[in-house]
Amino acid sequence: MSEQGGTQDPSDQLRKDENTRQSGGMWRKAITRRDVLKLAGIGGAGLLLGSLGTGGILQAGSAPVKREAQDLAGSGVVDFYGAHQAGIATPPQDFVCFAAFDLTVDAVAQVRKLFQQWTEAAAVMTSGGMIGSSNDNPNLPPSDTGEAAELVPSGLTITFGVGPSLFDARYGLSAKKPDTFADLPAFSGDELRPEWTGGDIGIQVCANDLQVAFHAIRNLARIARGKAVLRWTQEGFQRSSHSDKAGATPRNLMGFKDGTVNPNVHDPKTMDEVVWAQADDGVPWMAGGSYMVVRRVRIRVEVWDRSTLQDQEATFGRHRRSGAPLGSRDEFDQVDLNAKDENGNPLIPMNAHVRLARGDNSVHLLRRSYSYSSGLDRTTGQLDAGLLFISYQRDIAKQFIPVQKRLASDKLNEYIVHNGSAVFACFPGVREGGYIGDTLL
Amino acid sequence: MKVWNTGAVLFVAASIALAGCGNKENNQAESAEAGTTAANTANTTTESADAPVDLTDAMTGYKTYGIEQCDQFIIETEKFVTAVKNGDLETAKALYAPTRMYYERIEPIAESLGDFDPNIDARENDVPDADWRGFHKIEQSLWVNNTTDGMAEVADRLFSDVQALRALMETVEVDSTMLVTGAVELLNEVSSSKVTGEEERYSHTDLYDFVANVEGAKKIYELLQPALQAKDAELEAQIGENFTAMETLLAKYKSGDGYVSYTDLTEADTKALSQALDALAEPLSQMGTILEA
Ligand code: HEM
Description:
The complex is a heterodimer of chains A (441) and B (293). Chain A has 441 residues and is α+β, with helices and mostly antiparallel strands.
């Protein structure tokens, strides 16, 4: 954890502890994969990884960031406790299981109890343990469902957030609702379906093993029975770390490298600017937390597959094979929106996705998306596949919304449709003995 | 119709119980000895998690309940089959679902007594066509063919199956372990077929079965309540609350003396019912804690 990041409460002491622990671990012995992973999990490994040559340029804002080799996240433990929740600055694992819940209880004390139980279970699961004490009693259903027994923790992270609906009349929390935190406005082209929209609580579970991730969601849902019900879920994947040892930028289902330009998660200053809500942002309970946007974006793969390579590249403004901006050679070359061809036409078309998404490059967000495939659309017989777009930002109204508004004229819209949407205020991290959400509940 | 699972019976015929199950007898003996202790513990509010609890009353209480339900089941089945044989279509339709409720409350008993469940409660395709008889065969005739014609023999057979069930009821011995799991099994019945509308595929009277299964589970809970109270008061209270929530939700679907048709439920309704059921079944599945020494 860097000193720059150490100014905000409530995590000062925690950060100090981490410093001690980290430097102990770092200098006493050669660093192991697991150590690196632990550091990365609490967002504290920026300088370290930078100096190992795996990080990118330490500059504020979005920059091309080479991804650290994926096997860093391989099989180890990502610390559950820390100043920030794991699963945000954590380099994306191979799989996601996302779940939105609706609360069914009527008192805030019961909500608190649920988060306490969830915290306990999450701490155990992320360290690879079994939930509960009754796993060998023949008279009772085992307290852990068991399918992750003996499996390595697989970089499991569990990230909790609450939706705007939590702040309605039910729990007396309306005065605590962040001013600009609300369901997203309708964007042009939206075809949102209720079955993939909203939720009082959102949980992003990521791991390098889908069974480990599913086990976590399943057990959290089980613990919630009688207190909260599942509202919607979506699983997602990237290419796995086994298939890409080099840890290159993963490709989405349109065949393009996705995630090239993203804030440097290892630079605390950037993260404080772009991702972590700050103590003076007006919402004390969110200091050190982050706002999550989830969009279930269906890709019309059949249509995309019949479009020419030239059209495909013009859609994004990047080359498919290299990932380089059109007219450039390397994936990480700077995007020059002013570059023209010999006829004076922009190399990156005016309606290209990267041009519109970038805008004047003053606004950034941390994208942490996964591909999804959910079988067939039974009415059309086509694949229901696409992108589970997930982004983290300090303020949705200032970051995601203006970007998504600009995307109204995106050429990409010919090939995609947004059919699910939710936003969650993800709490700051928790220290041992505390519980997720203890700053609010 | 029960999804047959020979490993999970609530009752075993007395003869079998006496013949084979030394373990169980020991348990019961221990329970009996500790009986007074448990009762005292329940009265004073001190929770003694260590005292083995006495389930003798619960077990005899449940046997009595089973017999009462079965007696009533015979009376109502007789009215139903009479209507079928008299060609009184409307009366037969009206009696069909309420009659079945007596059976649904105690369904695990029939399962433990051999072929009764397939004979009384099989759905089409659960058994070979030639063997298909019982309530659902008549249901198909009443609602799909809209007639009682050709059902007289099936009706007679149903009545004699129900009478035979009643006769065997005398011999069952309630087993404490199985009593504990039986409540959850009744709810599992609901989530596997009633909540999906698959049980009553012609009459769409699934909610009657739903309610009856929940009532049957609640009876077991009530019988175990003192033991549960002594062992884990928080769990006992939680189950009680969740039963109330389930009953409140089901009450929304009352219509006259009965319940609305499954086809009147929206997707949101069935989802809410199913999730309330899961919410109830989860703590209910922890009742086995009373069997720990
Ligand atoms: C199916 C939907 C989408 C697909 C397939 C997609 C794909 C891509 C690709 C291939 C790139 C270029 C490589 C990179 O820099 O990562 C990119 C860049 C980007 N996308 Fe998307 N995207 C989608 C939706 C969105 C949405 C909904 C947003 C936010 C509202 C968004 C924001 C961005 C941003 C900020 C960049 C970086 C632009 C820059 O160079 O500064 N994308 N996207």
